[in-house]
Amino acid sequence: MSSERPAQRFGEIPGAPFGTTWRTRRECFEAGVHHQFEAGISGTEADGAFSIVVSGQYKDDKDNGDTIIYTGSGGHKPGDRTREQVRDQEWTDFGNEALRKSSKTGKPVCVIRGYEFDSEFAPWEGFRYDGLYICKRAWKEKNSDGYYDICRYKMERVPGQPPLHRRSTAIGRYKPLPGSEVVQPPAPAPVPVTGRQRIMQQIKASMDYEASSLGLPVDR
Predict the structure, then answer these.
(1) Which of 17, 47, 155, 199 could hold 133 in an S-S bridge, CB 3.0 to 4.6 Å?
(2) Would you say 166 and 121 are in contact if contact means Cβ atoms under 8 Å apart?
(3) Confidence (pLDDT) at 109
(4) Region at 131 (left for phi over 0; alpha for psi -120 to 50; beta for the rest)
């Protein structure tokens, strides 16, 4: 299987045009788009990063579409999939030095967005190739909790590529943006419900049941 996988390279991956989606990280790996099963950064310290996966593993990630503020790897307990930070991230943590190298070389980095990321630009399902970005800057700062250092990267999308896909605005969660392609969610569409809405729904259901049992008309 590995012999059929394209070698790591900078730029577009043959056979994987913009918008190509894979069901799992394994499929993405086997397609040769991201040469890591779990790590979010694929590359080398000498050459730089070839690709990154933006999947919401770190809560400090920020996705504005054409600009991504990406969080480096490390700082959590090995095997802890919650990614709860227990120490400072270091440049020597896996992949961090590779992406920092990219901020110096300016070579393009393939970006794959995952469905788990709470972003209007994330796919509803699977992992999707969203084109090439340039790492413009690498630095360290405190995480959002203010306790530990994290490695940070500013990724900017290379101009001239197809418009990004966006999650549908039909469910009222995301704002429309000109120049982007709206993608409808798979049926049935998820409907966000706040805690207050849920309580009001429960109260109404109880009142409707009581009115129905008394033979009174139910307000629909």
Answers:
(1) 155
(2) yes
(3) 95
(4) left
Q: What is the pLDDT of residues 103-121, one digit of tens each?
A: 999 999 999 999 988 899 9
Task: Residue 152: name the closest of 58, 80, 81, 86 by CA.
Answer: 58
Contact 121, 164 (CB under 8 A): yes
End-to-end Cα separation, the chain, in angstroms: 58
Unique residue bearing structure tokens 């033979």: 215
E-assigned strands of 55-126? Answer: 62-63, 67-71, 109-114
Tell me the two tokens of residue 109: 């980095």
Residue 80: how many other CB atoms lie within 10 Å: 10
Integer CA distances (angstroms), 80 to 33, 127, 171, in order: 25, 21, 33
Give the separation between CA 171 and CA 105, rounded to whole angstroms: 41
User: What pairing do the DSSP bridges indicate for beta strands 181-183 and 41-44?
Assistant: unpaired
CB of 149 within 8 A of CB of 130?
A: no
Is 68 or 77 the better-scoring residue by pLDDT?
Answer: 68
Query: Average pLDDT over the chain, rounded to whole?
Result: 81
175 contact partners, CB below 8 Å, separation of at least 6: 120, 169
- Res. 1: pLDDT tops 70: no
pLDDT tops 50 at residue 90 = yes
Provide the pLDDT for residue 174.
46
